[in-house]
Design goal:
The complex is a heterodimer of chains A (383) and B (257). Chain A is an alpha+beta fold. Chain A is 35% helix and 23% strand. In chain A, helix 1 crosses helix 13. Chain A is globular. Chain A starts with a strand and ends in a 19-residue tail after the last helix. Chain B is 44% helix and 17% strand. In chain B, a hairpin with a 2-residue loop joins strand 1 and strand 2. Classes of the chains: A alpha+beta (383), B alpha/beta (257).
Chain lengths: 383, 257
């Protein structure tokens, strides 16, 4: 029986969404699959770690006092000795060796590569994208810069930090003036549309920048797309990719906001399925281009395991732009995979085997080599 | 849409064209309480409304506030948007803010509209109820809810009627704003209301139990030259229940702006 640690929660604006993803579909599907010893590992909003099987039930987190309940428990510690082991220290110390980690964290200190770096150090297989692709995808500006360098179309944009805004506001406003309105101003590191403003005129620009800088110290200003169709494409795989259906969110608001995404979906774990068109009703040529660009984006960023690529399409000119990449789609976009013929059970078991496959390949690499550099310290060449 | 005011992210809406009106919502609601009224009035007015700090999509104040702090914040919000409202419209708690802001000269609109406004409950009654809530809550913390005294205590307070029930429910729902809530309801705005000299329209639901019609009548006495309009078959949320009637009264009142 494989022991799986599902890690969720964390110091992120998307903390609560992470709890939902961890349970629906990850833990529910792992339980349905059978053959797994599942350890839920929950990180509180202040960064404390707990692991208790009672947390395998979503109902645990629906208790209004669940934080108080947790405070009475012993915090879990991690040991990196020959892999990852959960340790509850004390006179009656308890240890659980983990075979595979299933990260289920959205946003900062999780999806941004931080957790992946920790798991790499622990030398344990883990589901989903690795550290570098997670870190790049978490930064909307980095993502666009990498994609532009590889010839993937993105909308015209500029980016800057809080410090540079304070120091060079005039220069940055001139730079922004080369972009065509309407503009979108976005914090680069936050998901779920937090802090994003659609700016229709120059008069609204500075307030929108101030809002984005309230949430992040680096922000992006980009052109909006006219006659917009938004589509998204979930992808799984390491080397051979499997594409889900191209999905079109039929949101009512001007852009998908936090509530649209996570709270209005009803059944199926939160992600809005009722307001999505699966597969998207777009013409075959556009569909093919989306799929090709999805594959190219996934490979360019070095994604593995699972990711979702979001696109903006100008329906009049048929121009397609890659908007962003999400390395842990909310609820794994299970609703789409189901419609694409992959059940929740098959999805999570496939993701675990992909994690093991990548880990095995990683072990084949040579990470050390012999050198005489230490013996030469103090010698003529190294001083 | 959001804007940063005094380091707090504030959700707001700014719709329509014409003379600027500022809408201030009641306790435990948000700017959407005015959706129907805005739809009616935004054809002739530019209507700015915000989620007051601690409500809706706006961030919590960093410490407990009283009505004065809210009034100044709302003024700063208007400066941020570069708007000068010619009319303020406040519902319930939003009415408290409007009364204080106008009386203190924080805002200098031409006209004021108060819907089921709070702030002028008879001093003795307000004090008894506020003190009861605080004392009872503090006492009840040490008693299991099944306790005989707890049940009797609740029964006694409930006998004070809808007013207490509204206060109790607001207090419970206040969460992180509990100390702000107590600060707000403890303030009697009668002396402030007396200072108001601009044309003021008072609109009340006949069946309002949270701020009973008697408080509307009291405001009419306190604000010289004010007019009280009572809408039949409406409660405390008169603007949601009867948006057409309220908008007709408002339009009539603001005709010469």
């Amino acid at each position: 029986m494989k022991t799986i640690a599902v890690i969720f929660g964390g110091r992120s604006a998307e903390h609560d969404v992470s709890i939902i993803t961890a349970h629906i579909p990850i833990i529910d599907s792992l339980q349905a699959a059978g053959g797994f010893d599942i350890w839920p590992v929950y990180i509180t909003k202040v960064g404390d770690w707990y692991a208790d099987k009672a947390m395998n039930r979503l109902a645990f987190f629906k208790q209004p006092n669940y934080e108080a309940v947790l405070k009475k428990q012993k915090k879990v510690q991690l040991s990196f000795d020959k892999g990852l082991t959960l340790v509850w220290p004390g006179l009656r110390e308890k240890k659980v060796k983990i075979d595979v980690v299933f990260p289920s964290m959205h946003g900062t200190y999780g999806e941004d590569g931080s957790l992946m770096g920790l798991l790499r150090m622990a030398k344990v297989p883990f589901v989903g994208c690795d550290m570098a692709s997670s870190a790049v995808a978490m930064d909307k500006a980095f993502t666009k810069q990498v994609l532009v360098a590889e010839g993937v179309p993105v909308v015209p944009f500029t980016w800057f930090t809080k410090v540079s805004w304070a120091q060079s506001k005039k220069y940055l406003l001139e730079k922004i003036s080369t972009l065509k309105y309407p503009l979108f101003v976005k914090p680069v590191h936050l998901g779920s549309s937090i802090g994003i403003t659609k700016v229709k005129s120059f008069a609204q620009l500075e307030n929108a920048i101030e809002v984005a800088l309230h949430y992040d110290d680096k922000i992006l200003v980009e052109e909006g797309v006219e006659d917009l169709i938004e589509v998204t494409l979930p992808i799984i795989g390491n080397y051979e990719l499997t594409l889900a259906s191209v999905e079109r969110p039929l949101n009512k608001t001007e852009f998908f906001d936090f509530k649209d995404k996570y709270l209005s979906g009803g059944k199926g774990g939160g992600v809005n399925s009722e307001y999505s068109e699966i597969p998207a009703n777009i013409d075959a040529e556009l569909l093919k281009q989306v799929q090709d660009l999805g594959r190219k984006t996934y490979k360019t960023l070095g994604c593995c395991g699972i990711a979702r690529v979001d696109f903006l399409i100008n329906s009049a000119t048929k121009k397609i732009f890659v908007n962003e990449v999400n390395t842990l789609p909310g609820s794994l976009y299970q609703h789409n995979w189901k419609k694409s013929g992959l059940s929740g059970v098959k999805l999570v078991t496939k993701l675990i085997s992909l994690a093991e496959e990548r880990f095995a390949a990683e072990q084949q690499l040579t990470h050390t080599f012999s050198s005489e550099i230490l013996s030469k310290v103090g010698g003529p060449k190294v001083q | 849409m959001k804007v940063i005011v005094n380091k707090l992210a504030v959700e707001y809406a700014d719709e329509g064209n014409g003379p600027v009106m500022l809408f201030l919502h009641g306790w435990n609601t948000d700017l959407h309480t005015f959706d129907a009224l805005t739809a009616e009035l935004s054809r002739d007015f530019r209507i700015a409304r915000l989620d007051l700090p601690g409500f809706g999509g706006s961030e919590l104040p960093k410490e407990s506030w009283g009505v004065g702090e809210y009034s100044i914040f709302v003024k700063d919000f208007c400066e941020k948007l570069d708007i000068t409202p010619v009319a303020l419209l406040g519902h319930s708690f939003g009415g408290r803010i409007a009364i204080k802001a106008v009386a203190r000269g924080i805002f200098t609109p031409e006209k004021l509209i108060l819907l089921g406004s709070a702030g002028v409950a008879r001093r003795t009654v307000a004090r008894v109820i506020t003190t009861s809530i605080v004392a009872f809550k503090n006492f009840a913390r040490f008693i299991p809810s099944s306790n005989f005294f707890y049940a009797k205590g609740r029964f006694f307070l409930r006998r004070l009627g809808g007013f207490y029930q509204q206060r109790e429910s607001d207090y419970h729902a206040a969460g992180a704003l509990k100390s702000t809530f107590l600060k707000v309801i403890a303030e009697d705005l009668s002396p402030e209301a007396k200072k108001i000299s601009i044309p003021t329209l008072l609109i009340w639901g006949e069946d309002d139990t949270a701020t009973p019609l008697s408080e509307g009548k009291r405001l009419r006495e306190l604000i010289i030259g004010s007019t009280l309009k009572v809408i039949a078959g409406a409660s405390h949320f008169v603007h949601q229940e009867k948006p057409s009637q309220v908008s007709t009264l408002v339009r009539e009142f603001l005709r010469c702006l």
